[in-house]
Write a structure and sequence with these properties.
Blueprint: E1 2-6, H1 12-20, E2 25-29, H2 33-40, H3 51-60, E3 64-67, E4 75-78, H4 95-104, E5 113-116, H5 124-135, E6 145-148, H6 158-164, E7 167-171, H7 174-184, E8 192-196, H8 197-228, H9 232-239, H10 262-269, H11 275-285, H12 287-298, E9 306-310, H13 325-335, E10 339-343, H14 354-358, E11 363-366, H15 378-381, E12 388-391, E13 402-405, H16 409-413
Parallel strand pairs: 1-2, 1-4, 2-3, 4-5, 5-6, 7-8, 9-10, 9-11, 11-12, 12-13
Antiparallel strand pairs: 6-7
Helix pairs in contact: 1-3, 4-5, 8-10, 8-11, 10-11, 12-13
Length: about 425
């Protein structure tokens, strides 16, 4: 089968490679010439475990090429970004999806399959994408097949999960669902779950909304614990020993292309009936300010105003900084007048020597759970002006100096005369 993928980012590229290594002929299209050039030189432009090896296999077999333009194919996969709009409810910006669909119109033929993998608001496939294709003269479900098939993968383990996770197949019609199932069945070993396009859209959004709401509960508990001087992490540990309780872990905020964005799409589609979702978003977006205020309290009697930020990505062991609360916190601290040094072994510009990052610092602020941060070497803390660590991800296991987290930080704050 000939497949054209529009968008070669964190989902589009792994998806293209997956099909290319399973006997399909794939053309990957991206609007960024630098991305296309890098891929055609044999290198991927994102950090993802195992993906470079698979990509090299696809190139060697001649089953993948990167291009700036689409070509005639049997199937087209839309995997472009869907950011938030700057409106009241931060609704879904469909401009990239619409542009992608319009870009393939000259190449579509009767019998083709169109898949939207991009995360989109409820009813987008039927209310936005379908009319564009019908206006071009096609009848959906008869001479053209349209479905929404959202990805459900964990960055850092995408290559495995694209194959083994269950996949929702949301066809506009029954025939559309069957056509999409036939294609994904060639690569996916997990269950292929039949659904309508709208059910698939809302299911994907609610998977991430569920996590966002539960993280908000944990973040609210961290704030309560600081206020009442109770160790919130110990409370979570004990509560989770109940056989029917699974509290999430608090942190500096929620980032990435899913959890920080998708809940808004649900709220925007039905604002009257989504107060819980909207409140959870407000709690999670308040966490960077909470961490900055806590940092200011810890720094009230520090020998200088230098803070070393550990981690800039939105989650551990990847290079993705999209919607990262760590970056937001770093910028807020700099705006507040702190001398901030950024250290992240997964981000090129911040991949510096750890000792240089910590030189003369009065606080290490851990904002990402990279595995490298489990141990903070003595060579780093020994060059600090004050060996103090605030670990917002509870990742640090070995260290020298004083270590605080979102559970016990009140113990240090109450000792310090606050000049605020």
């Amino acid at each position: 089968m000939k497949i054209t993928t529009i968008g070669l980012g964190y989902i589009g590229l792994p998806t293209s490679v997956l099909f290319a290594t399973h006997g399909h002929e794939v053309r990957g299209v991206d609007a960024n010439p630098a991305v296309v050039e890098t891929l055609n030189r044999g290198y991927i432009h994102i950090e993802e475990e195992g993906l470079q090896k698979l990509y090299s296999q696809a190139l060697q077999s001649g089953s993948f090429e990167a291009s700036l333009t689409p070509s005639e194919s049997d199937a087209f996969i839309i995997a472009v970004p869907t950011p938030n709009k700057d409106d009241e409810h931060k609704s879904c910006d469909l401009s990239y999806v619409v542009s992608a669909v319009e870009s393939i119109l000259p190449y579509i033929q009767k019998g083709n399959l169109i898949i939207v993998e991009s995360t989109i608001g409820p009813r987008t496939t039927e209310d936005v994408v379908q009319p564009i294709l019908e206006a071009a003269g096609f009848t959906i479900g008869e001479d053209l097949f349209l479905a929404h098939c959202p990805e459900r993968v964990l960055p850092g383990n995408i290559a495995h999960e694209l194959v083994h996770n269950p996949r929702i197949i949301g066809g506009v019609t029954t025939n559309c669902t069957e056509a999409a199932k036939a294609m994904y069945g060639t690569v996916v070993q997990g269950e292929l779950i039949e659904a309508t396009a709208s059910e698939a859209e809302l299911s994907k959004l609610m998977e991430n909304t569920y996590r966002d709401v539960n993280i908000a509960l944990a973040n609210e508990l961290a704030k309560i614990g600081l206020d009442l001087e109770i160790n919130a992490l110990k409370v979570i540990e004990m509560a989770n020993r109940h056989p029917r309780v699974n509290l999430h872990s608090p942190g500096p905020g929620v980032g990435g292309h899913c959890l920080a964005i998708d809940p808004y799409f649900v709220a925007a589609a039905s604002p009257k009936f989504s107060p819980l979702i909207q409140t959870a978003r407000k709690i999670n977006t308040s966490m960077p300010q909470f961490i900055v205020e806590t940092t200011s309290k810890l720094m009230a009697s520090a020998p200088n105003n230098k803070v070393t930020v550990f981690g800039l990505t939105y989650k551990g062991n990847i290079d993705d900084t999209r919607e990262s609360p760590a970056k937001e916190i770093s910028e807020m601290l700099q705006f507040a007048g702190y001398d901030v040094t950024e250290y992240d072994p997964h981000v090129e510009y911040a991949n510096i020597e750890i000792e240089a990052a910590c030189q003369d610092s009065s606080l290490i602020l851990v904002l990402t759970d990279h595995s490298e941060f489990k141990t903070i070497p003595a060579s780093a803390t020994q060059v600090m002006r004050q060996a103090q660590i605030l670990d917002t991800k509870a990742i640090v296991k070995q260290h020298e100096g004083e270590l605080f987290n979102l559970g016990n930080m009140y113990e240090q704050i109450r000792k310090i005369p606050q000049e605020m």
